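Go through this chain for my students:
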Amino acid sequence: MAERVRVRKVGTRDGRPTMLDDGHVVEGDELMTPTPGEPYSVRRTVIEHEGAPPVFATSPVRAVINGSDGSIVVVTDNSRYRVEVIGR
């Protein structure tokens, strides 16, 4: 089941390309759950700037970390994102 989520970029590995600044937030509906080896995609419902694509996709996911506090951290090839589920 797709979730309504808020995704915040929390860090970029040193020396890697930076597509979004740390702290950047995307909100929308998941196209699929975070799966290692697959890009993580969210259909945007909040467009932060003119020309933003309707779908936000991170790099392929290397790890999905489930925190004891219910948080989800998605680690991609060059960045780390915190995923907050805000609805269904």
User: Anything to note?
Assistant: The mean pLDDT is 86.
